[in-house]
Amino acid sequence: MERExxxxxxxxxxxxxxxAVGLGNIWRFSYVVGENGGGAFLILxxxxxxxxxxxxxxxxxxxxxxxxxxxxGSFQKxxxxxxxxxxxxxxxxxxFLILGFYSVVAGWSMYYFWNYxxxxxxxxxxxxxxxxxxxxxxxxxxxxxxxxxFMIFTIFIVLTGVKKGIEFANKLFMxxxxxxxxxxxxxxxxxxxxxxxxxxxxxPDWSVLDDPSVxxxxxxxxxxxxxxxxxxxxxxxxxxxxxxxxxxxxxxxGIMDTFFAIISGIVIFPAVFAFQIQPDSGPGLVxxxxxxxxxxxxxxxxxxxxxxxSLTLAAISSSISLLEVPVAYFIRVKKWSRxxxxxxxxxxxxxxxxxxxxxMGGLSHITPIxxxxxxxxxxxxxxxxxxxxxGLAMALFIGWHFTxxxxxxxxxxxxxxxxxxxxxxxxxxxPVLIIIIFLNTLEII
Length: 445
Ligand code: PFF
Known about the structure:
Layout: H1 9-20, H2 23-35, H3 39-67, H4 71-78, H5 85-117, H6 129-137, H7 141-159, H8 162-189, H9 194-202, H10 213-225, H11 232-238, H12 247-274, H13 285-296, H14 300-334, H15 338-358, H16 374-401, H17 404-411, H18 419-442
Bound molecules: 4-fluoro-L-phenylalanine (PFF).
The site of 4-fluoro-L-phenylalanine (PFF) has 15 residues, from helix 1, helix 2, helix 10 and helix 14.
């Protein structure tokens, strides 16, 4: 079967940005920053994006575009008979783990959207939003229903194909989210006590860096947020034709992704301090804080509707990119139709998500890693181990398996002033940093 292509480079850019910008920028970013002490972590995160993330993003997209194949096939095609393709399998496994729990959280977001639509969440409930959130996520059926519904949407978009489904969905929803976040940031900054939150986010307390787990958390967040190391960007790159130039596109994606993360930090943390909530209260942070903000502001109910709608849609544009990884693989290897591949893989991810969802309540005693529940464990393995490992393999592949000339050609850097610095990063600095951070992590697990 003929592989599809993006209609335009803009189509690719939007889809790749859609993949990058999602729950990771808002939900995950804010609670991870909160748990890791704020400003110093933010600086580590930004450094990871700049030094490791963006150079790797260019590498990953380039490998896909050159090979015109899925994450396993790309390595096989460019290095036949060599073991590089094993990294592709890690990516496929990571996509299952991530979308499994991602879809559960996206389901929470849909549930909030629905409850804003019906007016249920407009006014602060007598038990507080924290209680409402906890009783929802710890219940059995409701979160599963929304998780399932979200997965159905994701499957539906992926099975309609690259151009019609994925490209179209992205063009609509990203701008809406950006506008809402800016509006909310302005409001949040005007709250009494907002400055304390701004200080938490931007004023580094270096002592948090004594803890080795902070480094892997920053690296993992950078990978997660930029959709790196799974093969999503490689797969999306494989739908690009050769005449498009990549370096500008990847820098643009990095900037956009970081913009969304920082703006959501400016939305969340001033409010966290204004409402006197603990910044390290974990994955529920945005689901508790945002309703509090909405309840205070004029037209908050309407903002709530729009916000959770955009968040859900941002999540969909990321979840489709995750589903696309195994779908592209199975279409090629098993000759499955796109429809069949989407339904089968999406259903397996749904099943994994059931465990993640039940792990918030009835199965919370199951802690596969340390004191992490099922969802946190899936996230930890994927984001902090599989993705950096995948990224390491990609950096080594393009830095050492390719010749210098091939690397420049693949990335369109041949005539760029930045080519040598990129090459230095991808060949030496990125691999060394990832390995050091890994070794550092071994101490904590
Ligand atoms: N980058 C997405 C987000 O920040 O929400 C999540 C994600 C998508 C992670 C695709 C990994 C991936 F391959």
